[in-house]
Amino acid sequence: MLKEHGKVYGLKKITLIEPSEPALRRALSFVKRVVSQTIEVVAINKCIPDSEEFNELSEVTSSTPIAIHLFSNILDIWTFSLRGLAKKVAGYAKQQYIVCVGPAFRENSRISDFGEYFQKKTIFSRFSQYPYAYTETHHPYGCETMCFSLTSNDINENYVEKAKANKFIDDYSYVAESLRGIVNDNILNAYNAIREKLTDADSIFIQPHISTDVPDIVVIRPKIGVLIFNVCNDITNAEAQFERTEIYQRNLYNVHLRDVFGKALLNPSYWTAIKQAVFFPTEKDGERIGVDENKYKYAIRIYREDILSEDLISKLNLSWENKYFNDDLCKNVLELITSKGWHSYKEGDESITPTKRQRELAQSKSVEQKIKGVAGSGKTQVLAWRAVNAQVRTGGRVLVLTFNLTLVNYIKYRMGQVAADFNWGLFDITNYHQFFKSQANNHNLKPYIDDWDNETFFEKFKNNTIRYDTILFDEAQDYRYAWLLLIKNYFLKEGGEFVVFGDGRQNIYSRQQDEHHMPRIPGMPGPWTQINDNSNIAFRIENPEITRLSTLFQESFFDYSEPLVQQSIMPFEQFYIKYWNVGKNVTAETLCSNIFWLLNEFKLNQRDVTILSQTCSVLRNIEDVYIKSGGKPPITTFETKVEYDRIQAVSKWPKSDIDSIRRVKKVHFTIDHDGVKMATIHSFKGWESPTVILILQTEGSIEDDVYNVIENENSPALVYTAITRAKRNLFILNLGNNKYHNFFTNSIEA
User: Fold this and answer.
1) pTM for the full predicted model
2) 731, pLDDT greater than 60
3) What pLDDT is stored for residue 165 in this prediction?
4) Distance in angstroms (rounded) separating the CA atoms of residues 352 and 179
């Protein structure tokens, strides 16, 4: 660890304590290979004492003012005194850093007890998670850390340890047994029964977190399929369990897995790749269940005797190969469950440095706070820093919510740039509606459309909802007041950290605002904290002409305006801002030709280009022509023309199916794509792009022209959002929109 961080050169002495002589020799050999000969290395072949006096280790001393203590997989051993070790550590040096790591025990933690002996400590890493990650064979394992610094030798002499001795548990039965008393016994028994019938090539997971979905059991059999398996302990909730299981299956298709839902719409046989089952441990048959089998005809019903039968795997429909569950789909499902792992500081970007104000706001505290900043001011990056700092500070789970579904990947991208060590598995990053639906489903609730605004929807389960140490909101101006109140009341721990980030000028959904043109936040009156010393500086925008245009746009179309401030940079290439009114009744072929001309004329890298418009109608046709004309398939937030035409021709619920395709496209949208990006302005809000080509549709009746848009889709807030997505180059193609024509003609040089 010290070598990785380039800190080995500062060491004066290393003391190794190990009761096993062979292990001590190995450790000594390894350490001497890593450090220079000038560093003193002392090896002590002793056990850590079981008494509080620690006289047996009197030779362990320090001659330097700074000491680092590493306790790896040792504090969970019950044969020595934690109190004695705490006393020894407390008086060891003036400035000390204590790093404790070991396996996670859900209820019994010697690591936590050891940390509690130190009253005046500053924690810099703390978490306990099971499962923490998975081995190459997909076997789960847990991990707990408690890392802190000390400048005081005071310890809590009166602390009473809470951990209880654990009996020895075989590693491969530990999954179920370590959760006994935490997870329902019927779920654990079903897990063991199914696992015994599987092969080494199969994988089984108990209550895995698939984003915020938590099914009871998931089974993956290569070349055969996936099984979503839920347990119904109370038959009066049977229908809710069928509904819950079906939603988990559907979410895999239309949220979590990319492109599978579109394939399933074109070929319904793809639906057979992911199966669903409900287990009734109290029932010998289905006589008392009372749910019409035709309503949930695709759900497998498993009863009390079935779970112990030799043909259980056959009953679960996991015995026959399915050509639609190919190796790629199997790999994608496995990665979805097992990929949440450790983020190393080496994966971050140390060149991204915060301003003094941003650094202050990135510090995690148990407060409620409102932070504002203009487009490009660094709101999302500060949110990313704060999210990581919050997890390190609390050791608990962090919830990051956005309204725009496409921003989920952008927030992950920004968090990935943080040069820090953290565990991805302790962050839930999603949008409000998806979070609401998943939590409702986890509690067997079936929400209706009006329930989004029901601020007491989870009242019945207020003592059972997951509670987060920290909740952060991106783009707070997109939320309704009731949504913020619901999240705060039912999902934030008492005394937890609740922070919102916003920009009132990007109020594209016309939400209610206060007298300062900012969103109303529950229980948080008063002014917003500015994200920078000058709240209007736009770090994102490198082209000063885009900054000037954005300021002029505010002055021309908003009731209030605050001029954007251009950051001082030295441009090393020429930037462009151009405007053309190409008129109404233009075809997708003509627009596509214009786009190819822009790419060639201005020597644009396709990877740096995003094409935006108010609606999908024009973009869908452009994408189709673009690909047929030889362009590299773009990444989009909407359905292809082929999918759209197919749905219109055969679907019973075309709007629902189209919405489902758009949802999964938004979830997996990213700018990390070699081709151009295409998105509606709504979907791209919060993102940024070196080059934006804005296709400005005109307001009017859709019956007159399919490329027309309604009034709400032609608002100044939406157009302002679009032009402030561009970092370097902005090209506007106006399809006869008279509302903005004079402004762009007069404001942009020909």
Assistant:
1) 0.78
2) yes
3) 66
4) 41
Gap between the Cα atoms of 83 and 161, Å rounded: 9
Q: Which two tokens stand for residue 433?
A: 């509606």
From CA 204, how far away is CA 194, in angstroms rounded? 8
Contact yes or no for 367/497 (Cβ under 8 A): yes
Helix (H) or strand (E) holding 659: helix 654-667
Beta bridge partners of 145: 101, 127
What is the rounded CA–CA span in Å between residue 188 and residue 378?
46
Q: What is the pLDDT of residue 294?
A: 84
Question: Phi and psi at residue 721, in whole multiples of 5°?
Answer: -60, -40
- As a whole number of angstroms, the distance between CA 257 and CA 433 comes to 18
- In this structure, are residues 473 and 484 in contact, taking their beta carbons and an 8 Å threshold? yes
Stretch 105-113: mean pLDDT: 76
Q: Tell me the pLDDT tens digit for each residue of 616-650.
A: 999 999 999 999 999 999 999 999 999 999 899 98
Alpha helix positions (H), 461-563: 481-491, 544-557
Residue 620's Cβ-count burial label (10 Å; 0-12, 13-18, 19+) is buried
How many whole angstroms separate alpha carbon 511 and alpha carbon 277? 42
Alpha-carbon span 239 to 237, nearest angstrom = 6
Whole-number Å distance between alpha carbons of 602 and 592: 16
Torsion of CA 687, 692, 697, 698, to 10 degrees: 100
The answer to whether the beta carbons of residues 82 and 49 sit under 8 Å apart is no
pLDDT number for residue 563: 67
- Total H helices, total E strands in the chain: 22, 27
Helix (H) or strand (E) holding 328: helix 327-338
Q: What is the pLDDT of residues 378-413, one digit of tens each?
A: 889 999 999 999 998 888 899 999 998 888 889 998
